[in-house]
Amino acid sequence: MRKLLAFTVTMALVAAVAAYLVWTQERPVAHYLSDLRITLAVNEGLPADRGNLLGIQPELFPADYQSLERLHLKLSAYLQKARDQGLINDKTIVVLPEHIGTWLMLTGEKNEVYQALHAKEAMHWFSLSNPLLFARAWISATGDNRSDDAYLRMKATGMARDYQVLFGGLAKEFGVTLVAGSIALPNPSVSQGQLQVGHGPLYNASVVFAADGLPIGEPQRQLYPIYDERGFIQPGDENVVSVVDTPAGRLGILVGSDSWYPDNYRKLNEQGAQLVAVPAFVLGRDTWTRPWRGFKSVSTPQEISLKPEELSEGEAWRRLTLISQQPISQASAGMSVFLRGQFWDLGTSGQSFLSGNGQVSADGDARGARLLNIWL
User: Fold this and answer.
1) pTM to 2 decimal places
2) CATH architecture, domain 38-106+157-375
3) What confidence tens digit (pLDDT) does each residue in 240-271 have?
């Protein structure tokens, strides 16, 4: 009797494990209608032969990332709208927001991930449906927050491949230089024209793609990750602020609140940066209008006199982003572009803005996807 009971229990466990493994392999694609509309919110200057900076502030949701084809459809629709309005030429630099590539971790997941109401619930399904990948990533995690580190690390190789296929492909399709927001990857680098992942810490990095679809230079790592990400994102080398050559001029990239630090602009000046792109992201539906909490890192520049809570988050971004404010920045134009949308219960805020000749122009309405353009 005991042997029969043990055999029955063993077979039940084997059946349960087998059923679980079959379940983890199922990836049905649910029907999803995405809003492809986008509004031209800001258009400064007059068309000339010097090109333009074109910011795309998308409105994205988890289900947009279910397949690469679905995300391509949405982003290419935005770019086609810009082309239809005469905003794209062979000297156009397109700027996308911070972390637009990080969410590629969601590609090819189960419907439970996209349909979750809360981020914690979504990540529970995410790890449950990828048990071996998650376990391997957990072992390799280097950050203090091992869970978040593992979530980002577990599909890093595929994320890097998809990032280049998608954003390099869009750059080639539309014949533009494309600042592909940012993506969190372990020790990213470019080798023989391909974005590669390495071992060790995660970095939040931005890659620029040329009109041939290939990366220009090395990924620009974020130098000062915000407090909420310091448990799993490693700061980049603060001495490395890169400038790349584009058909519209020399372009510098500052990721997120790296744009608040005057010394970064001095480094760009030394390399002859004429333009500055800032992929940005602000978490929280109403954070933009709440009191500013101060600098997002352990250090505060000596020349900055602003104090926490004396102005709003949005006002701080516009005051601290020093694009084209000589002599601190000698760039002629720049743009800060924010990611918008709703990721489960994690709302986003941030209103994109641009600067040219010392004048700041901002989008006064954050609803829906937005285009911002400045002719150079």
Assistant:
1) 0.91
2) 4-Layer Sandwich (3.60)
3) 998 999 999 999 999 999 999 999 999 999 99
